[in-house]
Amino acid sequence: MNRATRIAVIVAMAIAVLAPIGLVVYQSFLDGPFFQPKISFTLSAYEFVLDDEDFFDALYNSAVIAFGMTAIAVPVGALLAFLMTRTDLPGRRWIEPVILVPMFVSSVVLAFGFVVSLGPAGFVTLWFKSTFGFVPWYLYSKTTLIVIAGLTHVPHVFLYTSSALRSLGSDVEEAARMTGAGPLRTALTVSLPMVMPNILYAAVLVFFLGFELFGLPLVLGDPEGILVLATYLYKLTNKLGTPSYQLMAVVVVAIICIALPLVALQRFLLRAANRYVSVKGKAAAQKPVSIGVWRWPAAAMITAWLLFTVVVPLSGLVLRAFVSSWGEGVNLLDVLTLDHFRELMEFPNLTRGIVNTLLIASVGGALSVGVYTMLNLAAHRWQSGWTRLMDYLVLLPRAMPGLVAGLAIFWVFLFTPFLSPLRQTMIAIWVAYTLVWLAYGMRLVSGALLQIGPELEEAGRIVGASPGRVSRDLTIPLVKVGLFSSWLLIFVTFMREYSTGVYLLAPGTEVIGSLLVSLWGTGAVDLVTALSTVNIAMIGGGLLLMSLFGKRSHG
Amino acid sequence: MAKLIIDDLHLSYGNNEILKGITATFAQGEIVALLGRSGSGKTTLLRSIAGLEEPKRGVISIGDQPVFDAAAGLNVPSEKRGLGLVFQSYALWPHKTVFENVAYGLRLRNVPKADLQQRVATVLDGVGLGHLGDRYPHQMSGGQQQRVALARALVYNPPVILLDEPLSNLDAKLREEARIWIRNLIKRMNLTAVFVTHDQVEAMAIADRIVLLDGGRIVQAGTPEQLYTEPVSLFASEFMGVNNQILSRVQDKRGGYARIDLSGIPLWGKDRAGKSVSDEATGVIRLEQVEVVDGEGENCVPAELETSVYLGSHWEHVFRCGDQMLRAFGRPLAAGTHWLHLPPEQLWVF
C-alpha cells in the first residue's frame, strides 16, 4: 500500500470509530432525541441520571460483581493453567479443549442453561430436592450471580496464563529444581511470578468484562431486581415509556468513562507482559512436573468446575428443548418431543434469524476479516503518527460493550441521511459487529501478519516488486492460513454475539442472539431453549471445523 | 570505473546517530567487505544502499545514476534500484518452490517464459542446485538455502550484489568452504559485491578491499594486507588480528620510532600515532611476530614461561614479564625464563 492509501484507510476507520461515540456524546447534552425538530443543549439528562437511585444501585452492583468474579476467576484460572500446562495431570488432552467452551457459548445462553438446570424449578434442583429433600442454593441471588460470573470467566484467565506458561522455557524451572526447590516451591516462587504480568492482565480483563456483563445479570438478576449498568441501560428504554435517548446516552457515556481507563490499563499491562515474556529462556522442550497423588484432587476439582459451568447448564438447556413438560414425578423419557423445534419453524422471524446468523457469521465474518486485514496492512511496517493514532482508535470501540455499540450504530444509521435506508438491513448489523470486535479482530490478523519476518517482504522489494505486489504476491499468500483461522474465530464469535443486535432488532435484521434476548422478555421458554440449542449446535459446528483445520495445519 | 559511490551519508533513528558521514567508492568487479562490530553501522549502511533505510543526508549513486540524494529529495525505492541482496536469514519465501523463488525477479521484469526457464536453470546450475528446483525452502539444508538466496539475487544480473552476513548461519566447516566458493562465483561472473561481516578472517578471505567501520564512521579502508599489516589505529590493529599489548609511556622518539618500556626494559617500536614524549602509549605486536630467541639482544625482554597451550599446528606460550603478560607462538619450550625478541618494525606504538 502506498502512503495515500494507508492514510485514506486510517481516516475511514477514524470516522467509523468516532462517529458513533461523537453522536452519543452529542445526544447526552440534548433535551430530547436528536431527530426531533426542536432540541436544545442542556445538562438535564445528566441531572436526571445522577439523581436516579437505580443508577447508583446498578453502578454499585456492577462494581461488586466485577470485584467478586475477578477474585474467583483469577486464582481458579491461574491454577488451572498451571495444572494443564506444567504437570502430568491425567486426561489433560481431552480436558483442554473443553475448558474454553464457556468463552464460545454466548453468556445469555449459558444463563438460560443455569435457569433451566439450577433455577427454582430446574432439572437439577428438582432432582436434588427429591433425593435429599431440600435445596441449599438459590439461583437468583447476587452471590450466585457472582459465583456463576466468576466461574464462567475462568477460561479468559486460563487462556492468557497458559500461553505465557507455555512460552516459559522449562530451563528456568529446572534451574530452580537444581538449586534445591521442590515442585510446589518452584511453581510458587519461579513459574507463577514469572507469568505474573500476564495474570495481572487477565485480572484487569476479567474485571473489565465484569463491568460489561449483560446476559448473565439480565437473566439471573432480573427476578430479584438486581440491576447492573448494562441492564439498567436496557431497562431505561421502557422506564419512561417514550424513547429517552438523552438518558440512554448519559448512561453510555458513563459506561465508556469507566471502561476507557480499564482498556488503557489492559493495553499497558499487555505490553509490559509481552516484554517480560520475550526475555525468558528457551521454550524448546518442556518436561511436565510430577505432582504425585495431588493429581487426583486436582483432576476432581477441574471436573467439578467443568460439570458446573459447562455440562450442567448446556445439557439442561438441550434437554429442556426436547421435552414438553417436566416436574416432580415426570419421567423425562415419556415427554420427549420435537414440538419446540417445529414451533420454531412456524415463526418466519425466527427462521430468518437463523439464516441471518449463519450469513453474518460466514459472509459477514469473512468481510470483517477483510476489513481487519486492510486496516492492518495500512499500518503494516510503518512507523508514523498515523499508525499511533490508529493504535488508540482501536481501543475506543473496545470500551463500548456490544449493547452500547449496537445502540450507537443504530443512532448513526438513524442520524445520517444516506445511511438511514440501510438501518433495517443486515448491513447495519454487520457494521456494528465489525466495530464491536474491531480490537479483537485486529489482534487476530496482526498476529498472523507478525509471523512473517520483515525480510521476506524486503526481499520482494529488492528483487523488484512494488509495495502493492509485495502485499499481493508475498504477504497475503503467506498469511493465508492465519487469515483463515482468524475467520473461523470471528465466525464463532459472530455466531454467539447477542447484545450488539439488541437495539438493531427489526424485521429483516433478526439474529439468534438478539431474538433470544427479546424472546426471554416475553417468557417463551420453549422457543428460547430450542433456539439456544440451534445456536449451540451451530457454534459446535464452527468449533469442530476449527479443530479439524487446526489438526490439518499442524500435521 | 566506479560502480557504486557513497558520499557523506548520515542516518539516525530519532536521536540515535547510526551513520556519521560515510564516504566510499566501489569499483566495477570489486568485492568489498564492510567490517565492524555489532552496532558499528555496517548493516545499516548496506540497507541504505539497498533502499531499505532512509538516510537523512548524503548521496548514493549506482553507475552514474544517483539513487538517493537527500538534498535533491531523491529516494529511488528498493524495487527500482535493481540491486541484488542476500539476507542474513536468506528470507526465502516459504510458499514458493526454489524455482519460483528465483524466478520471481524475472517474472516481475516480464521475461518471456522460455527465456525465464533457461535463465533460472542456468543460475541454479551455477550455484550447484540445478536438480532441486521443485523443492520448497524448508526441505533444504542451510547451505543449500544460502545458495538459493544467492541465485535469487543473481538471476536478473544486478549491477551490484549486496550480502548481509551471508555465512553467519552456516556451521564452521561449511563456512570455510563457502568463503572460497562465493569468492570464485562472484569473480567468475565479474560482479561488484558488497558484503557485511563481523569476522575479520572472513573479510580477508573473500574481499578485495575491506572497509572497517566503528561507531558509524570509517576507521580504515584498504586491501586486507594493508589493514592487517598497517592498521591506522589501536582499534584497527585490535580488530584485525590477535595482539600483545604493552601499556607504557613514550620515553624517547627518533626517526619515526618511539621508545616505550616493558618492566624497565626499553623497547623501540614504530611511532604510529605521533605521540609526544611522556604521553601514555600502547605498544602493540601480533602474536606471530614475537620470537623466542637464545639470548640477550636489541629489543629483547626476559620473561617467565607461565603456561603453554597445544593448538595442533603450533604451541601458544604465555609469558610473564613484570606485571605484563606476553603471548607468542612457537615450538614446545621448557619451563623457566626465556628471551623474547619484539622486532621494532613489527611493534607499533599507538
TrEMBL record, chain A:
Residues 59-266, 354-549 form the ABC transmembrane type-1 domain. Keywords: Cell inner membrane, Cell membrane, Membrane, Plasmid, Transmembrane, Transmembrane helix, Transport. It is a multi-pass membrane protein. GO terms for cellular component: plasma membrane. Its main location: membrane. It is found in: Cell inner membrane; Cell membrane. Gene3D superfamilies: MetI-like. This is Iron ABC transporter permease. It comes from Azospirillum oryzae.
From TrEMBL, chain B:
GO terms for biological process: quaternary ammonium group transport. The keyword Membrane applies. GO terms for cellular component: membrane. It holds the Pfam family ABC_tran. GO terms for molecular function: ABC-type ferric iron transporter activity; ATP binding; ATP hydrolysis activity. It comes from the Bacteria. Keywords: ATP-binding, Cell membrane, Ion transport, Iron, Iron transport, Membrane, Nucleotide-binding, Plasmid, Transport. The keyword Transport applies. Residues 4-240 form the ABC transporter domain. PROSITE patterns: ABC_TRANSPORTER_1, ABC_TRANSPORTER_2. PANTHER family: SPERMIDINE/PUTRESCINE IMPORT ATP-BINDING PROTEIN POTA (PTHR42781), SPERMIDINE_PUTRESCINE IMPORT ATP-BINDING PROTEIN POTA (PTHR42781:SF4). This is ABC transporter ATP-binding protein. The lineage of its organism: Bacteria, Pseudomonadati, Pseudomonadota, Alphaproteobacteria, Rhodospirillales.
